[in-house]
Amino acid sequence: MKADPQPTIGSTELQQAVEQAVRRLQQGGLVAIPTETVYGLAADASNQKAVQNIFSAKGRPADHPLIVHLAAPSMLDASLANRSDAWFKLIAPWVRDLPEEAMRLVETFWPGPLTLVLKKDKHVLSAVTGGQDTIALRSPDHPVAQALLQAFGGGLAAPSANRFGKVSPTRAADVSAEFSDQADLLILDGGDCIVGIESTIVDLSSGTPVLLRPGAITPEQIEQQTGVRVLQAGARADSDKVTPRVSGSLKAHYAPNTPLRLYAAGAALDCISQYPDTKSHVALVVWESEQMRDPQVLGASHIHQIPIPEQSDLFASRLYRLLRDLDDHSWELIVMPEPPMGQEWDGVRDRLQRACFGSGPPVSNHVSS
Ligand code: TXA
Ligand code: MG
């Protein structure tokens, strides 16, 4: 295992780390890479064996498809009169249909935390797509990921760099902790992930754009900036037939080992009191502006308040780090405020609800994934 010290962009260290990573990938190895959302566990998307190694390293079922990460147009291409052509050339080899709506999304949001599901080209390995006829593509907005993609020159299949069903890593140290048994895993350290939750996924393979996973980029934002309307998953009458497998859509996902519950505004103490086993060590996460002065809380030595920001983007950027840090302590219960309504909170709400459902020791009757 190697968690290199974080290299500075443009430095010789980064260049050397990238060169080493490229060699690993060319040999069919795995490399953990930083992105703006979460760390990914990357392999050459055109190497079947390398892709299969991802599934065994993660303990992920082989029919769960992966996202292929692509380089953004180089500075040279970007200066072409038509930047759209440059994107088109990069994406076209992977897909057999590139709707005009997809190009509008690419031009507006790539590189960035938006994954597009499109009809796949015939050369795409079915190990990558989980046997589906579609492929998920994204170009990450992280300088280290882009440096690697440029130097590698191909697509990188990469799921989040965590064991299946567990909280995604947002720091290099989280990846080391997840794969502590894989001493030779190369980890590129790109610092803390800024977005903090996985990319928004939009399916454009079936005519009507459908949201498969909420993230930092919301359907409202997409419509405002591109005019493309994205339906919520399930909005289509035939959604059970057309929505492809998304492992993040399993109920129990992104789960910490410590039991986690959400409380409605003003009901934190009720929530704690409903948890009968708890005599000590409750982590009570509270909105920064609402730290409780209630004597019942202040006087309770077993309840520790942990403030969290009220802005959805800051909350998201801290969420997984907070869950991991809390999980490393011997709390018996973590309680967090229910996120407010509104699309900018949908990504966070989705991850928190799944984290609650799957949290706790793996003995209960929930789907353990
Ligand atoms: O932000 C992200 O998207 C991160 C970083 C590393 O890029 N990646 C990530 O990968 O979250 P993963 O494998 O943990 O989640 C990718 C999701 C899965 O739920 C998968 O089922 C879905 O994308 N997916 C991949 N290919 C698909 C396809 N062809 N159709 C539908 N869903 C697909
Ligand atoms: Mg994942």
Give a structural overview.
This protein has helices spanning 12-26, 48-58, 75-78, 83-91, 100-109, 126-129, 143-152, 172-178, 219-226, 239-242, 268-273, 295-298, 312-327, 346-358, and strands spanning 2-3, 31-33, 40-44, 67-69, 114-119, 134-138, 156-157, 186-187, 200-203, 210-213, 231-232, 260-263, 282-287, 303-308, 333-337. With 369 residues, the protein is α/β, with parallel strands linked by helices. The protein has two domains: 2-232, Alpha-Beta Complex (DHBP synthase); 260-358, Threonylcarbamoyl-AMP synthase, C-terminal domain (Rossmann fold). The strands form two sheets. The chain has an eleven-stranded mixed sheet with strand order 1-8-2-3-7-4-6-5-9-10-11, sandwiched between helices. A four-stranded parallel sheet has the order 12-15-13-14. Helix 1 crosses helix 7. The longest helix has 16 residues, at 312-327. The chain is globular, with a radius of gyration of 21 Å. 46% of the residues are buried. Magnesium ion binds next to loops.
